[in-house]
Amino acid sequence: MLLMQRTKPLPAGKMDTLRTLSVCLVFLLPLLSSAQNDACELSASPAGCVCSGPNVVCTGYWPTYRELHSGDIDSKLESLTITNTTKTNLIKCESVFGTLTNLRKLDLSNNQINFTRPRSFSSICFPNLEQLVLDDNALRLSAHTTFKSLDRLRELHLNNALYRNQSVSEQVTHTFIKSSMPSLEEIMLNDNLLGDLSSSTFNFNLSSGSSPLSRIHLRNSRLGMINTNLFEVETLPNLSFIDLSMNSITGLPIENLESFDKFSSALTINLTGNPLTCNCNLKDFVVWLQSNDTEVTVVDQEKLNCSMDSIVHGGKRIIDLDPMELKCGHIQNTDMDEQMKTSYILLIAVLSIIGLLALVILFMRRKEIIKLCNQMKQATKETFDTHHTSYVYSDITQARRETPEHSAVDV
Ligand SMILES: *[C@@H]1O[C@H](CO)[C@@H](O)[C@H](O)[C@H]1NC(C)=O
Ligand SMILES: *[C@@H]1O[C@H](CO)[C@@H](O)[C@H](O)[C@H]1NC(C)=O
Ligand SMILES: *[C@@H]1O[C@H](CO)[C@@H](O)[C@H](O)[C@H]1NC(C)=O
Ligand SMILES: *[C@@H]1O[C@H](CO)[C@@H](O)[C@H](O)[C@H]1NC(C)=O
Ligand SMILES: *[C@@H]1O[C@H](CO)[C@@H](O)[C@H](O)[C@H]1NC(C)=O
Ligand SMILES: *[C@@H]1O[C@H](CO)[C@@H](O)[C@H](O)[C@H]1NC(C)=O
Ligand SMILES: *[C@@H]1O[C@H](CO)[C@@H](O)[C@H](O)[C@H]1NC(C)=O
Ligand SMILES: *[C@@H]1O[C@H](CO)[C@@H](O)[C@H](O)[C@H]1NC(C)=O
């Protein structure tokens, strides 16, 4: 269009050349764009979806069972994304998806799924599923076998995925224990109202071998304390990263630190954005953080600050603290000391002012005072003089009296 408009003032010969060019472009453009998005490798694709290579993306449209089983989709489809629909209910997968033998990635993020059934995600339908994304839904994991025997699943994304009207940690724990996911390496549970997790949450019931789980994301999940047995090397030998950032963790007791230290693999922990409270309860953590004995890496440890709830150390960098200064029982005493100090300062100030006023008054009345002084001097002198003479007299008299040879009668 732009080309045609620009050609208007040009002579006829040149216009012909341009016309041929633009016609060429019109034919070339679709070819170019299809070269950018891989050509669909499936013989059929659901009508409301976009296919590229072995992947299908459906936005605002949920494909039917029949559409997913037309042509070679069920054997060739590798990645299926269905987002932005109003679907709320997921019954067992056989009725919704059927068996998709080659599916590696299923992304159902940003729908309104609030209800799942046993076997909503089962190896019957997804024998080769490696990545399951359920972000931004409102799932109630009421069915304990929601993720049934997904033997090859390596990544489970449940960010902002769980129903927000209740504490869901118990449901999560039950679901994980009952749903077998023996190959799971990464689990994302960010932005859910989890609350504190029970010790067995990630203790998957694996009949053979140990869990390969390596990365656990629990950012912004309302965690307050970390159950001592939640991250244990015995159940999670391959654990290498725990994201605990943006939670409500006020401190990590020695039991947590000891269980972290048992991981021989390089374990990294993100504690950014927690209200760590710098009092005696944080002492072990501070010592641990400052020592070089641990192989555990704390992300940005030099940026961890004491929360403003820390009475004495609020806002200070934790890495700079002297562990000996972290006190609890004495917090009130320290407070009292502070108050006493303030009182003393006030007292000294008041006394200084009074003293200063006295000096000023003295200075202003200096003439009277000098006069008074002189009068007093005079008076003293007179008294002294009289006293002096009488003293001398009486002295002599006394001396005489005290001399044993003389008696009062002699005088
Ligand atoms: C999702 O759907 C709504 C309407 O239902 C639409 O306005 C919005 O643009 C869609 N978002 C995406 C990312 O497609
Ligand atoms: C799921 O959401 C739909 C629509 O918002 C609602 O009618 C239904 O009751 C919800 N189901 C559950 C189990 O919350
Ligand atoms: C959330 O929970 C409250 C009380 O438990 C209840 O009144 C409310 O209806 C619930 N909301 C939804 C959407 O289920
Ligand atoms: C663990 O798995 C075994 C075999 O699959 C099962 O019998 C047992 O009940 C499971 N334990 C829990 C706590 O789910
Ligand atoms: C643990 O991780 C290492 C390398 O990251 C891997 O070779 C090993 O198989 C993993 N262990 C398990 C039980 O998956
Ligand atoms: C640690 O957590 C913070 C806050 O969630 C985030 O911004 C940062 O990128 C994280 N760092 C690492 C290394 O994970
Ligand atoms: C830890 O190592 C750093 C340098 O690597 C050193 O400055 C610091 O004093 C060491 N801390 C302890 C407690 O040994
Ligand atoms: C921690 O405190 C230091 C100064 O003490 C400040 O520069 C830094 O921004 C603070 N960090 C955070 C994450 O608030």
TrEMBL record:
Gene3D superfamilies, alphabetized: Ribonuclease Inhibitor (3.80.10.10)
BP term (GO), one: negative regulation of canonical Wnt signaling pathway
Residues spanning the membrane: 344-364
PROSITE patterns for this protein: LRR (PS51450)
Stored InterPro entries: Cys-rich_flank_reg_C, Leu-rich_rpt, Leu-rich_rpt_typical-subtyp, LRR_dom_sf, Wnt_signaling_inhibitor
Keywords from the UniProt entry: Leucine-rich repeat, Membrane, Repeat, Signal, Transmembrane, Transmembrane helix
GO cellular component annotations of the record: plasma membrane
Upper lineage: Eukaryota, Metazoa, Echinodermata, Eleutherozoa, Echinozoa
Alphabetical list of SMART domains matching this protein: LRR_TYP, LRRCT
Name of the protein in question: LRRCT domain-containing protein
Organism of origin: Strongylocentrotus purpuratus (Purple sea urchin)
Signal sequence range: 1-35
All copies of domain LRRCT, residue ranges: 274-329
